[in-house]
Hints:
By secondary structure, the chain is an alpha/beta fold. The chain folds into three domains: about 5-180, Alpha-D-Glucose-1,6-Bisphosphate, subunit A, domain 3 (Alpha-D-Glucose-1,6-Bisphosphate, Chain A, domain 3, 3-Layer(aba) Sandwich), CATH 3.40.120; about 185-410, Alpha-D-Glucose-1,6-Bisphosphate, subunit A, domain 3 (Alpha-D-Glucose-1,6-Bisphosphate, Chain A, domain 3, 3-Layer(aba) Sandwich); about 410-540, 2-Layer Sandwich (TATA-Binding Protein), CATH 3.30.310.50. It is about 30% helix and about 25% strand. The protein contains 18 helices and 27 strands. The chain has a seven-stranded mixed sheet, with helices on both faces. A seven-stranded antiparallel sheet has the order 20-21-24-25-26-19-27. Helix 7 packs across helix 13 (about 380-395). It is globular, with a radius of gyration of 23 Å. The model has no long low-confidence stretch (mean pLDDT about 95). The chain binds 1-O-phosphono-alpha-D-glucopyranose and zinc ion. The site of 1-O-phosphono-alpha-D-glucopyranose has 14 residues, from loops.
Amino acid sequence: MPEIRIVSTRPFPGQKPGTSGLRKKVAVFAQPHYLENFVQAVFDSIGDIAGKTLVVGGDGRYHNRAAIQTILKMAAANGFGRVMVGQGGILSTPAASAVIRKYRTFGGIILSASHNPGGPTEDFGIKYNIPAGGPAPEAVTEAIHARSEAISEYRIVTAADLDLDRPGEQRLGAMTVEVFDPVADYADLMESLFDFAAIRAAFKAGFRMRFDAMHAVTGPYAVEILERRLGAPAGTVMNGVPLEDFGGGHPDPNLVHAHDLVEALSGEGAPDFGAASDGDGDRNMVLGRDFYVTPSDSLAVLAANATLCPGYKAGLKGIARSMPTSAAADRVAEKLGIPVFETPTGWKFFGTLLDAGKATLCGEESFGTGSDHVREKDGLWAVLMWLNVLAARKQSVADIVTAHWREFGRNIYSRHDYEGIDAKAADGLMEHLRGLDLKGKRLGAYGVAVNDDFAYTDPVDGSVSRKQGIRVVFDDGSRIVYRLSGTGTEGATLRVYIERFEPDPARQDIDPQAALADLIVIARDLAEIEARTGRTEPTVIT
Ligand code: G1P
Ligand code: ZN
């Protein structure tokens, strides 16, 4: 039996999970006791773990394997009965959620910093997902944080590293470690939701797509599902080999970082459909030939067409979206006669609604879409739902989205990010905005109808989350929202979300930056962005 060591330690400040887990530079995680403290704080905060099963895996980024070895040894020392590890330490975030649910485990630990770059000088991250499969709710993350501030020792066994590449069972003291295929269960779940026969037939008839895995975790999932099970030609998946540094790229599926894909989808002869996913496989970007679908529109279009997919034939119970996400989905919900929920930013807020059967589809403007099949957003799921809709409607992406605008009106939308700004300046800017009282005032051509800092009361468990973003809503429904990112590891990132509704079909085919120009100026002036941050332009526009 390996020896269980009880190691004395001291708290590290700042082990506070953000929008999605604890994210820091690799160097921070790699220092002695740092990861161990946080993992012990998790184990101490989630109830009775004796004999239970835990799922562990990550997006394959630098430090993934080393962290998994530590977690396994700590799980054994803390009394878990079994740990299921994705082969090679790989598990996409949605696949981890699927596996936690399928095998009814006592949750899981996912190692990822999502779309943040990877490598020795880049980011690493860790989060605990609860037995329902979703990110730990705030009460749990707060308990973990509190525990991390009081920790004085952790438990770990002394043992040789396990072989993470050999499928099957190994022993670690009294605990069993099971290395399993990270793709199979997830691929089976996708096959149960979508009309694979129709999609296969479309590929056979010449439908062409590109999927950009961005050298991140979805490569093996996409190859298995798109190329093997659906028969798309080899080469459909680009950048399909997961690399520890994502090939030096920034694995964020947006127009800036997924430029290979954007290029592949432009011009005559380009494929019919393009999609990309992020570091850990929960985000998606969807493109048609020379056509970009905003994530907010994607949610609305998928909701309007959901019954074309076998898994959603019975219709949707409701739609949930994060507050900064455009109201496009609300118009679909209204027509379908189903409720819509507006939650704070972060997938963890959808969990209670999904568990309670109040919502079926969820989405965030930040390239996140998902459903009640798991408790995370799911990149490949969104791609497959689009493929199912395209195969059923036999129209182009552009035609489907444009027809959607004609029917429901278009919520013209853009997000402007100011990355890496001074943290103090960012806090000052938010304080300045909080101090404004704009209700009833005029800004340019717009009268202000609502001005507040968004607060949310969870309709299922009654928990309250405050300070979730400054809203300036105008009389005509146009809107500016400001919030600071909770996922960065350097300085601060200000996100400004701008939206206007355009019901007139003759005016819908317009570049969003042009259509929103006056609101963009108002947004910059109101927040004094240039004076406070020194920035004249955002770093990323989506
Ligand atoms: C960002 C997105 C948010 C998403 C999160 C995790 O968080 O804005 O919608 O849930 O990443 O993928 P933020 O950096 O804005 O706090
Ligand atoms: Zn992600």
